[in-house]
Design a protein that fits this description.
Elements (H helix, E strand, L loop, with lengths): L11 H7 L30 E4 L3 H6 L4 E6 L5 H12 L3 E9 L2 E5 L2 E5 L2 E8 L11
Antiparallel strand pairs: 1-2, 2-6, 3-6, 4-5
Length: 135
């Protein structure tokens, strides 16, 4: 019945020792590594960007400093801009988002659906570059 122990009152002697921190032994590595907390308002790129969208049209847009990415359906423009800036180290000028709907497909008499997706066209500052495909 350890699940119900959370509802029991703790003795006062236990409460007094909870606030004090125990000293760790010198020279031994700690069991849990210290993780730096994320900056307030920072966006993790893996929660926003799915992948670069590589098509013929997308490669033509690179000449105009525009790059196309597939993004998660819940992502918005500001999150996308922050994620690209953090991941690639460039300055984003603007972001345009396109919601591609799902399409009805047919294969061997069976009807089905092709998944829809959301993509973002990100324009970066002139003179900067993103290496999407390694050469």
């Amino acid at each position: 019945m350890s699940i119900l122990n959370i509802f029991k009152k703790k003795p006062s002697s236990v409460k007094a020792t909870e606030g004090k921190e125990e000293k760790a032994e010198v020279g031994l590595p700690s069991a849990s590594p210290k993780i730096k907390p994320a900056k307030k308002g920072s966006v993790r790129a893996y929660r926003v960007l799915v992948s670069p969208h590589i098509t013929e049209k997308a490669t033509e847009l690179e000449k105009e400093n525009k790059y196309v990415f597939k993004i998660f359906s819940r992502a918005n423009k500001t999150e996308t801009a922050k994620a690209v800036e953090d991941l690639y180290g460039v300055e984003v000028v603007n972001v345009r988002i396109i919601n591609a709907p799902r399409k009805k497909k047919r294969l061997a008499g069976q009807a089905g659906w092709k998944k829809g997706y959301k993509k973002a066209i990100v324009r970066i500052k002139k003179g900067q570059k993103i290496e999407i495909m390694p050469r």
